[in-house]
Every structure is written in C-alpha cells, then in structure tokens.
Specification:
2 domains, 182 residues, 5 helices, TATA-Binding Protein, five-stranded antiparallel beta sheet
Length: 182
C-alpha cells in the first residue's frame, strides 16, 4: 500500500499542470476599458467568451428574431384572424387551428405554412390548406383543397414581405450590435 506522503505527491504531480496553466503573463489593463459594459462589448466583438456548446463539440448557433424575418411577419399578418395551434420559428412552421366562419359551421379550414428559405421568392413557402366537412359534428371528412385560396394567400404573403423589406431598407435599418456606450 502507498503511504500518505507518496499519495500526496502523486496528487500534487497530477494537479500541478492545472495549477501552472492558469498562470500567465496577465492582461494589460491599458488595452481593456475600465467600464464593465464596454469590456463585455469589446469581448463580444472579438469573439471572446465561454460557450458550453462549443466546448463540448457542438456548433455555435446564430439566433435571429422572428420579427426580423419579413416572410415570417407577413405570414402571421395574413392569417392573424385564425387561432394558431403551433408556431415554431426555428422549425419554420406555422399551423393554425381549425377555423370556420359563422355562415357554414360544418366546414372548417386549417392552414399549414412551412418556410423553405428566408428569401422572398415564390418557392420560399409551402402552404397547405385543409378543409374538414362534418355532418352533425360526426362523420368528418378531411381533404386538402382550396387551390385558389392557397395561391392568393401566397401572393399576399410575398407582397407584404416585400413591403416590409423595402421599409426596412428605407429606414437605414441598423441591426442590434450590443450594449450602448455612454
């Protein structure tokens, strides 16, 4: 068996590289601003920082807010009268709940919008419109339909998205760059 002194020596030798690796030449205080907010901004601009996803081999993800995507905003505006079941920006899907107007309560409509790209173009959206026709709330038949409505909805979304894009360009839009300096 090992004696306590040999065991202490093995533990010390094992952890010695860890202790020495934290020693460094230090940072030059003249190169870093004294204000913590400015230091954070400088570190973010230089890409410094600790991210667990990168440490464990994951990929870094850049998140965009849904309000900055013109197609997304235009789609939500186009179907704002319908209740939503599932809205997933990162998955690129909007699904409404079954909707019916008061004129024909036996016929319901459900819309699914899938985003294939963030670019404003005709093949950027995959829109499906389902109709459900029920007889006395029983014997419901669900089918995909309303091709004319699908085309009109796609046209409305693309036009509105283009308007949003033009407004963003005309306002000299500046993306969020971090903390404001005083």
């Amino acid at each position: 068996m090992f004696s306590k002194n040999i065991l202490k020596l093995i533990v010390f030798i094992t952890f010695l590289p860890l202790l020495l690796s934290s020693c460094g030449s230090g940072a030059d205080a003249r190169k870093f601003p004294p204000n913590p907010e400015l230091r954070v901004k400088k570190n973010m601009e230089e890409g410094r920082g600790f991210r667990l996803s990168e440490t464990f081999g994951g990929k870094s993800t850049t998140y965009e807010f849904a309000s900055s995507n013109e197609l997304w905003r235009a789609s939500l505006d186009a179907i704002d009268f319908m209740p939503l079941t599932s809205v997933n920006y990162s998955g690129g899907v909007i699904i409404t709940d079954w909707y019916s107007n008061d004129q024909n309560s036996n016929e319901n409509v459900k819309i699914s919008i899938r985003f294939l790209t963030n670019e404003i173009r005709s093949d950027a959206l995959d829109i499906k419109i389902f109709k459900k026709i029920c007889e006395n709330n029983f014997n419901c038949k669900i089918s995909e339909g309303y091709d004319e409505l699908k085309l009109e909805l796609k046209k409305k979304i693309l036009k509105t998205a283009k308007i949003y894009e033009t407004q963003k360009e005309n306002k000299d839009f500046k993306p969020y760059t971090g903390l404001k300096t005083k």
